[in-house]
Amino acid sequence: MPPRPVFYISDRTGITVETLGHSLLSQFESLAYTETIVPFVDNDEKLEACIVRIEAAAQASGQRPLLFVTLVNREHQARLAACDALMVDFFRTFLGVLENELEISPGQRMGHTHGVRDPGQYDARMDTLNYALRTDDGSGAQQYDSADLIIVGVSRSGKTPTCLYLALQFGIRAANYPITEEDLEHLRLPPTLVSHRSRLFGLLIDADRLHRIRSQRLPDSRYASLAQCRYELRQLQALFQREGIPWLDSTSMSVEEIATGILHASGRRR
Amino acid sequence: MPPRPVFYISDRTGITVETLGHSLLSQFESLAYTETIVPFVDNDEKLEACIVRIEAAAQASGQRPLLFVTLVNREHQARLAACDALMVDFFRTFLGVLENELEISPGQRMGHTHGVRDPGQYDARMDTLNYALRTDDGSGAQQYDSADLIIVGVSRSGKTPTCLYLALQFGIRAANYPITEEDLEHLRLPPTLVSHRSRLFGLLIDADRLHRIRSQRLPDSRYASLAQCRYELRQLQALFQREGIPWLDSTSMSVEEIATGILHASGRRR
User: Fold this and answer.
1) CB neighbours of residue A242 within 10 Å
2) For the complex shown, is ipTM > 0.85?
3) Distance (Å, whole) CA B257 – CA B265
4) Over chain A (270 residues), what is each successive 10-residue block's mean pLDDT?
5) By the 8 A CB rule, do A46 and B265 touch?
6) A165 and A197 part of one domain
7) Domain span at residue B138?
8) How close, in Å, is residue B70 to chain A by CA atoms?
């Protein structure tokens, strides 16, 4: 059987509808499908062009397409619903339910899901991102007083992407600081961090995984050896325990999960 | 009337369910509500703790809570559905519809929405992020041969966040290069970029907005003056046109929208 055509259709970026569609489809492991993302469908021409693609895919595959849709425009929803396809409409399905519950009529604003609600918010996010870049890998410690969080861990444990994601997604001012072998040997907090203890959050990672990551950078080095990775991580965990620093193990987590997990565990508002 | 309690409940990060809930609620402009995000609800204890919070919020506000939910566990879905609250369940609502259409029974895997599907994919994303950091603001030009995209624009037009987001969200290797005043005066492409013309993508921005952004950095400078911003942007647009470089205007767009818009306009796969 040829793969089923799947379309993710949005009047904005399509990031949310794609994520949600993936999540639903991941429940049907044996399903073979091809994916097409159609973002920015915000006028009649783009909608008609999208319908042409849907019909062509149906014809070529001989299979009824699946449409995952977040469109605010009701005429556009209706046009798509009239296609010979299964439509999963994340907005239309629930707006009526909410309208009944809230006893308010919904407006029809284009989804501001990932839009700039106000420039001040955008500027604030750029400010947090610049902060993360300035305070990456132990730099800019004189700016730690304004940090929401300081992420600590050994080299290559995922500190930088975590901080950038915390800034971009959540507007959190997150610095990061590498714990060196010397600090680990003496099981001591680097002096720079002592007065910022309450902002610290630790990252641990499985030694095998760290060994593989470091080996890509410096193969066959002492730095990348499994023994060295094990030693550093064991000492680091002991240090976190001794100093009462909260931490999480990032081994099987994506950047989104690490960032969300840190906010959740540290009680920071997102 | 006290604000309505709104809960976003997920067995993973809650990023998707919060985005979608926001989008739906933004259609009801006059609604006053308080928001609580409850991520990582992946066992019975966490679910029961979440229900306690929902009931407390209902009692305190005297209002029926709204629950936006993405939980894979069906017993957990059912427990929540039994609360005295309006539940918008993005998974359960559509799984039955999909099951009928596909004639496959769904599994019950925890949502891998933002999880690490395989470590290879995670490594690839870290690799693209490191690439973006190494090739930020004109650095690392000797690595341009492996760029998917090189974002060009004037200072403070949003190149860096765009590249980081392209890397983190889409695994795209994006470098960025600042076009200087001297290049703009001569309406010429910087020599470094000439052999990479097909990878270039331009960013424009409204002159007033650029003036405000630059003024935060260097108030009352020639660099930040409205006249200078206007001049640079006019010349830049002329350069893009002359060299056939695709571009978009990022003024009223969020980082997500800029990144998605670039992929869409340049035909790059996400």
Assistant:
1) 11
2) no
3) 12
4) 94 89 88 94 96 97 96 93 94 88 75 54 84 93 96 94 92 95 94 95 96 92 96 97 95 89 84
5) no
6) yes
7) 119-266
8) 9
Q: Are residues B125 and B234 in the same domain?
A: yes
How many angstroms separate the CA atoms of B70 and B9, rounded?
6
Rounded distance between C-alpha atoms, residue B96 and residue B89, angstroms:
12
Residue B13 contacts A where some CB pair is shorter than 8 Å: yes
Give the β-pairing of B4-10 and B66-70. parallel
Q: What is the pLDDT of residues B218-270, one digit of tens each?
A: 999 999 999 999 999 999 999 999 999 999 999 888 888 999 999 988 887 77
Mean of pLDDT values over B88-101: 89
Q: What is the pLDDT of residue A56?
A: 97
Give the integer Cα–Cα distance in Å for A39 and A31: 24
pLDDT number for residue B108: 61
d(CA B140, CA B174): 12
Contact present, A26 and B112 (Cβ < 8 Å)? yes
Chain A positions touching B253 (Cβ under 8 A) are 115-116
Asked if residue B181 is part of any domain, the answer here is yes
Instruction: Tell me whether A34 touches chain B (CB under 8 Å).
Output: no
Q: Which of A42, A75, A102 is the last residue of a domain?
A: A102
* A140: contact with B, CB 8 A cutoff: no
Specify burial of residue B55 (Cβ count, 10 A radius: 0-12, 13-18, 19+). middle
| Cβ-contact A262, A148 below 8 angstroms | no
Residues A41 and A156 in one domain: no
Characterize the bridge pairing of strands A4-10 and A66-70.
parallel
Which chain B positions have a beta carbon within 8 Å of A120's beta carbon? none
Please give the pLDDT value at position A112.
Answer: 47
Note the pTM of the prediction, 2 decimals: 0.79
Number of domains in chain B: 2
Backbone angles phi, psi at B41, to 5 degrees: -80, 80
Please tell me whether residues A39 and A146 are part of one structural domain.
no
Cross-chain CB nearest to A31 (options B102, B252, B253): B102
Tell me what pLDDT residue A111 has: 47
Counting Cβ atoms within 10 Å, is residue B105 exposed (0-12), middle (13-18) or buried (19+)?
exposed
Sequence-distant (≥ 6) Cβ neighbours of residue A92 within 8 angstroms: A74, A77
**Distance from the B136 Cα atom to the nearest Cα atom in chain A, whole angstroms:** 11
